[in-house]
UniProtKB/TrEMBL annotation:
It comes from the Eukaryota. Residues 1-163 form the NHR domain. SMART domains: NEUZ. This is Neuralized-like protein 4 isoform X1. It comes from Limulus polyphemus (Atlantic horseshoe crab). The gene is LOC106469466.
Length: 441
């Protein structure tokens, strides 16, 4: 299935009609499939080019109007007849908003991300992002409809792809996640594809390190900074907050930073829980936080910690620099637990490092107090919390119950009786990353 030769004024079709590019401006980039969309068939495109000087981005949906007779407005939201359009995280029908907070924000899609639509056998419209069904966007879709894409704003070029291309993309992301989290899976050789040059090209990264040795004027940014493309506003704000702490940049490895805000983790279709270590033990991804990866200390051999567990540790803002300088976690030093805690255990706990397999517990305000952050760019006053993600040696800690007096489960995946991991052993943890969470955006 290709795009129809009748299209928006600023569109040029390429690759036999399978690719479409907006040649100028930010609008008049509407393209429609040449044939009606069969029920149960996914129509999807890959984002091949972005232009960050504009705002907003790609829109996608279906229309009942034949492309031969369609009058193309400046944007898809100008289609006044039977057209269902998904823009940002809204659904529009005939230019009128009919649903909010649906799926991830399409303005957050990156280069090489996939987005598509499908009408199921019950005439319901579904949105797919990177191969993941985002649920029902609309109902009662007429029998004959055509897939459409609005190459709008930052999105400048797309290409129609089939489901196999999407599976390759998901395998690529899964391989990256496996490396990051330590999950080990054998994959068929035929499924392996070349990783994106944006962040994962070893040759490019080595060239970047060589360039940094030349001492050229100005700051030499990592390659990922040049190709961040669709910047996440939450991650950018977290970065500005982290910059106010005055932490040495040498502690960090910026190309491995990951944002777990709602939009980003939905776009990646992150699984919420992973297992790592020997024996394997489960931990929760830090949804709602932004992760800034740390460089391993020279004394730490990555091979020696590949079978360690993953855990989280909340802390006060003033302790972050001391922890980084020492290269190890600090005990809580008399954290007040409130009425739910037991004072008889407080002194004992204050001499130990407290960890948890979920940041919902370790990163709560009791262990990671809120700090006021006045964002200089937006002039908003936000509340910030910080925590660490760490590797922890199996057998070096004991599991115990939560101390907040909570009755309901803090994390549905874990029992409240095993939420705390306590250790006194030296060299039993290795810092993985700094986590930042902002509230009030």
């Amino acid at each position: 299935m290709e795009f129809h030769e009748n299209h928006g004024h600023n569109v040029q079709l390429l690759n036999g009609g399978f690719s479409a590019r907006r040649m100028s401006g930010y609008n008049k980039g509407l393209v429609v499939c040449s044939k009606p969309l069969p029920r149960g068939q996914l129509f999807q495109v890959r984002i091949d080019k972005l232009d960050l000087k504009w705002t907003s981005s790609l829109r996608i949906g279906v229309t009942t109007q034949s492309p031969e007779k369609l009058h193309f407005p400046s944007s898809s939201l100008g289609l006044q007849k039977s057209a269902w359009i998904i823009s940002e995280d809204f659904v529009f029908f005939g230019g009128i908003k009919v649903k909010s907070h649906y799926g991830p924000n399409l303005d957050s899609l990156h280069f090489c991300h996939f987005v598509g639509v499908m009408v199921d056998s019950e005439n319901r419209l579904h949105l797919y992002v990177n191969g993941i069904d985002q649920g029902i966007a609309a109902t009662d879709i007429p029998p004959v409809c055509y897939g459409l894409v609005d190459i709008y704003g930052q999105c400048e070029q797309v290409m129609i792809v089939n489901s196999n291309d999407d599976q390759n993309h998901r395998v690529e992301y899964k391989e990256k996640a496996d490396k990051d989290t330590g999950v080990k899976e054998k994959k068929k050789k035929s499924q392996t594809i070349e990783k994106s040059v944006i962040k994962n090209c070893e040759y490019q990264n080595t060239c970047s390190r060589f360039l940094a040795t030349l001492g050229l004027p100005g700051k030499v940014l990592p390659w990922s900074s040049y190709f961040s493309l669709q910047d996440c506003k939450y991650q950018n704000t977290c970065s500005r907050f982290l910059a106010t702490l005055g932490l040495p940049v040498g502690y960090f490895v910026s190309e491995h930073n990951v944002c777990f805000c709602e939009a980003c983790h939905k776009i990646r279709a992150d699984e919420p829980y992973f297992k790592k270590g020997d024996p394997p033990r489960e931990y929760a991804l830090p949804f709602g936080w932004c992760r800034f990866s740390l460089r391993l200390p020279n004394k730490v051999d990555p091979y020696n910690i590949q079978d360690w567990h993953i855990a989280f540790h909340g802390t006060r803002l003033g302790a972050v620099r001391r922890i980084l300088d020492r290269g190890e976690l600090l005990p809580p030093d008399g954290i007040s637990l409130g009425s739910g805690g037991k004072s008889g255990k407080a002194d004992n706990h204050s001499q130990q490092v407290m960890l948890s397999p979920t940041v919902r517990y370790a990163g709560c305000a009791t262990f990671a107090p809120r700090h006021e952050f006045n964002d200089s760019k937006t002039q908003k006053i936000l509340q910030a919390r910080v925590a660490f993600q760490v590797y922890v040696r199996p057998g070096s800690y004991t599991s115990g119950p939560q101390r907040l007096g909570a009755v309901e489960p803090i994390d549905l995946r874990f029992s409240n009786s095993e939420l705390e991991w306590l250790t006194k052993e030296q060299n039993s943890t290795v810092l993985h990353s700094v986590l930042v969470r902002l509230e009030g955006l």
